[in-house]
UniProtKB/TrEMBL annotation:
One of its GO terms (biological process) is rhamnogalacturonan II biosynthetic process. Residues 121-337 form the Nucleotide-diphospho-sugar transferase domain. Its EC number is 2.4.2.-. The lineage of its organism: Eukaryota, Viridiplantae, Streptophyta, Embryophyta, Tracheophyta. GO terms for cellular component: Golgi membrane. This is Glycosyltransferase. Keywords: Cell wall biogenesis/degradation, Glycosyltransferase, Golgi apparatus, Membrane, Signal-anchor, Transferase, Transmembrane, Transmembrane helix. GO terms for molecular function: UDP-xylosyltransferase activity.
């Protein structure tokens, strides 16, 4: 990804306790009571009853009313990738994203656009923190999984930071795990909006499909090969949208991507993200892997779609996925989506399987 979803931290949503508020000892009689009067005996009985019933509850953290809630939430802590993948996959294929809590509005926007193509049933959200896991599964049971360890979500927001690098560096391993289970997988960043169904563009039986992040206009009939390297000695393929078949070739690229990330870890000077390593992996496996560059007219980089009106006019009706990159900042991304009528959560949240968040 070329730009960030720079974040404000969100407050954790699970600070409620469910202690019954009405049960206070101040409800007990205040005036002196004679044990021998009828009223006194009744009061004593009531007191014993109250103490006998309430005190054991009071020992339990959260009280008994939270037990059901806690166990229904905890059930997802043991939900594994093989279980989630087999629950969600259609025709052996998954659509996957990886999100932390602050990205939930973008997740919802992306999901609305996918629902319009009737592909939402295939979506598996890889939650990077427990708040996201619980939120998605509470509203849409089974569609989120957390692959431990959970990240410190506060650290994972700022583009160029080590936390953000650590967050994105997990992506090839997640994808490799899914391939090893035998599924095809489409990965998307969630700052994307579908205008059409990308699956009809996955022609042939190649190992890896991807899009170019270069903004330079290509001819409509451009080659589907890996483009030549650019100024930095490497290609500029986007790690934001990738389709993989469960082949040796696709697995090799994921393994190489992991190696490249380990060989060039994050440094203060470089402030790397995961995309260069993906490009080195593609270049170093050339000849061993069957790759397919998707058409620019259908999958334009944000650097083209949001910056060249002439091109957008000339390719009208051909756009399939719009990526809101080449811009830094959470608020700026939302504003740009709004300006282009692509921020769907304002008016169409009902169309999301998560509803209004
Ligand atoms: C199922 O997957 C196969 C192989 O990937 C593909 O050729 C076929 O069109 C898919 N069928 C549907 C209904 O999507
Ligand atoms: C990122 O990962 C490295 C290596 O695993 C670790 O030392 C570092 O503390 C992590 N940083 C953040 C901010 O998560
Ligand atoms: C914008 O798109 C038009 C039409 O495709 C193209 O001729 C022109 O070179 C593009 N402009 C830039 C700055 O890339």
């Amino acid at each position: 990804m070329t730009t960030s979803l720079h974040q404000r931290p969100f407050q954790p949503a699970f600070s409620h306790r469910f202690l019954p508020a009405s049960l206070h000892y101040s409800n007990l009689p205040q005036r002196p009571i004679s044990l021998f009067s009828r009223a006194g005996l009744l009061s004593l009985l009531a007191l014993m009853l109250i103490l006998g019933v309430i005190v054991p509850w009071a020992d339990m953290p959260g009280g008994i009313f939270s037990v059901n809630k806690a166990s229904s939430v905890n059930q997802w802590r043991h939900y594994t990738l093989p279980q989630a993948a087999s629950f969600v996959a259609k025709n052996g294929t998954l659509i996957v994203c990886a999100v932390s809590q602050a990205y939930l509005p973008f997740l919802n926007n992306w999901l609305i656009s996918i629902s319009r193509q009737k592909r939402q049933d295939m979506v598996l959200v890889i939650a990077e923190d427990y708040a996201t896991l619980d939120k998605v599964n509470e509203r849409w049971p089974g569609h989120a999984v957390l692959i431990p360890p959970a990240l410190d979500s506060q650290a994972a927001h700022k583009f160029g930071s080590q936390g953000f690098f650590n967050f994105t560096a997990r992506r090839p391993q997640h994808l490799l795990n899914i391939l090893e289970l035998g599924y095809s997988v489409m990965y998307n960043d969630v700052d994307m909006v579908w205008l059409g169904d990308p699956f009809t563009y996955l022609r042939g039986l190649h190992d890896v499909y991807f899009t170019d992040d270069m903004a330079a206009v290509k001819p409509l009939d451009h080659s589907h090969d890996l483009p030549p390297p650019g100024k930095k000695g490497r290609t500029y393929i986007c790690s934001c949208m990738i389709f993989l078949r469960p082949t040796d070739g696709a697995k090799l690229v994921m393994k190489k991507w992991i190696e490249e990330l380990q060989a060039q870890p994050w440094s203060r000077a470089k402030k790397a993200n995961d995309q260069p390593a993906f490009n080195w992996a593609l270049m170093k496996t050339t000849g061993q892997v069957d790759v397919y560059l998707l058409p620019q007219s259908a999958f334009p980089t944000g650097g083209l779609y949001f910056k060249n009106k002439t091109w957008v006019q000339g390719t009208k009706g051909k756009h399939v996925i719009i990526h809101n990159n080449y811009i830094v900042g959470f608020e700026k991304k939302i504003k740009r989506f709004r300006d282009y009528g692509l921020w769907l959560v304002d008016d169409h949240a009902k169309e999301s399987p998560l509803g209004k968040l």
